[in-house]
Amino acid sequence: DAGVIQSPRHEVTEMGQEVTLRCKPISGHNSLFWYRQTMMRGLELLIYFNNNVPIDDSGMPEDRFSAKMPNASFSTLKIQPSEPRDSAVYFCASSTDSNQPQHFGDGTRLSIL
Amino acid sequence: GENVEQHPSTLSVQEGDSAVIKCTYSDSASNYFPWYKQELGKRPQLIIDIRSNVGEKKDQRIAVTLNKTAKHFSLHITETQPEDSAVYFCAASIGDYKLSFGAGTTVTVRA
Predict the structure, then answer these.
(1) Helical segments of chain B, H only
(2) Which end of chain A is more exposed for a tag (fewer CB within 10 A), N or C?
(3) Which residue of A33, A55, A102, A111 to mutate against B (max B Cβ within 10 Å)?
């Protein structure tokens, strides 16, 4: 099992640019979570998908953030336009179903200059 | 509220000694409590979890205890080794899918 796969591992870009983070969940997992981790706020849930449908996006900070899950094996998190305060590590996690163990990907370390 | 409080924030132990991390939660409906270990620059890795119908669970040197009445749960690491050095996060379920994470405990095992 390859685990949850995220890309890119690192992203450095200038403010105002569009950023797209990608995630491939573990095969067979129906639930997918996007998290943001910072020193100040810890791990925050941004959005939760179940069976490719966004169930809870209440954690998405603002309209600059959007997420999609076009199929069971792929999800994207997009920030447009990006701002320096978006700098953080973004993790994707998946589980077989809601309230089951969540397995995290290696994360994307995002730096907005 | 949905807060999970975790203590201590840092913990330094001598190799071979035990380490204990404690968490409290506020939602009486919480029924799933995972623990994650995160090494520097790495992903959070699930190391053990417990559900509310169980009071204790053990996996080799790691054990977790749960007191539903008091709304607290603890992680115990025995015979600590240098590779146990990491940040440990507790979490409690909120509703059907959310996890509320503690702020983390940085554990340092001194050789």
Answers:
(1) none
(2) N
(3) A102
